[in-house]
């Protein structure tokens, strides 16, 4: 049974200054089975991030449906549910990793990861232990744990973002270029967590330009260049 189904999805953006509309994506169809990892590839500007942000409901599509099989809400259309229901999904079932860190400035690195767990109802003492374990895994220096992350480097912010999202062990994890500013060692840490999450039943959708990273990791690929799902990963894809 599909955990997520994107059907006839389309999204436009309006440039108010020029008074013109731009079609970001159109006629997108794909399914994600529970426990599977779907990679999305394609040229820059082809609409990959638009799809992920619409699944997370940062954007609302102009056409189509995004069906999600929620544990709590049943099968719902993310494009039509209430804001309260979407907040619930973000807390308990769907996590999103962006290339950028957007958090309140007066919360420390450690507190941010703890908060991700506490908002799910995890006890403070357990959240503290799990947060420290996640920060250690992603090799964020212990000296940074009680520092405000606005001072972090790009790579440190990205690793914190990934820790905040993955520590919740969501049912669906959305990854928007999760290895963009990471060195090879950090990329392998991300891969380890992805493999662990898949093994525990998390489903994933990820956007990648690093094709080597997803070799042997994704179960299927959706190519934005031809809007076709590919069930096996070949040697070469246009990125």
TrEMBL record:
Keywords: ATP-binding, Nucleotide-binding
Transmembrane regions: none
Gene3D superfamilies hit by this protein: P-loop containing nucleotide triphosphate hydrolases (3.40.50.300)
Domain of life: Bacteria
Domain ABC transporter: 4-238
The keyword Ubl conjugation appears for this protein: no
Stored PANTHER family: ALPHA-D-RIBOSE 1-METHYLPHOSPHONATE 5-TRIPHOSPHATE SYNTHASE SUBUNIT PHNL, LIPOPROTEIN-RELEASING SYSTEM ATP-BINDING PROTEIN LOLD
Family note: Belongs to the ABC transporter superfamily.
Full protein name: ABC transporter
Native source organism of the sequence: Oceanobacillus kimchii
